[in-house]
Amino acid sequence: MASMEEGFQAITRQAVTAAWRYGLLRSEAERYREVYPPGSFGALGELSVDDIVDLAGWTPPMRDEQLSLLVLAAAENPDRDGFTSSLRAEVELGEAWSQPWLDRRTKNEEGHDTDN
């Protein structure tokens, strides 16, 4: 998404969708780990929640409390519109998630490597 030559609004819209889906994924991974803790029977063996969600690819760095807000909002709002509405007041969280995508776009426009 960030490497495509999209504008600010398109990247921001896609970043919100990515945040919602990431929150859903992390919520499901946490529920999975509650049912199948590491060392128990389960398809993902010894993987932690972080290991499981890391399989989805790069995400912006987030503080634990920001991740908790994202996961809670996604778990309580399985639809994108509800998720977006619930986080509308969380400006800092929105910026923490969206800005790295925009930064990667800027680096791409300047000809820098964005795979880091």
Describe this structure in words.
The chain has 116 residues and is an all-alpha fold. It is 64% helix and 0% strand. It has five helices and no strands. Helix 1 packs across helix 3 and helix 1 crosses helix 5. The mean pLDDT is 81.
Number of strands: 0
Spans where pLDDT lies below 50 across 5 or more residues: none
Quickly count the helices: 5
Shape: globular
Mean pLDDT: 81
Alpha carbon gap, first and last residue: 15 Å
Please give the radius of gyration in angstroms: 15 Å
Percent of residues in beta strands: under 5%
Can you give the helix content as a percent range?
Answer: 55-70%
User: What is the structural class?
Assistant: mainly alpha
**Topology order in helix (H) and strand (E) letters:** HHHHH
Major β-sheet annotation: none
Q: Helix and strand layout, with pairings?
A:
Layout: H1 8-35, H2 49-54, H3 64-76, H4 80-87, H5 91-109
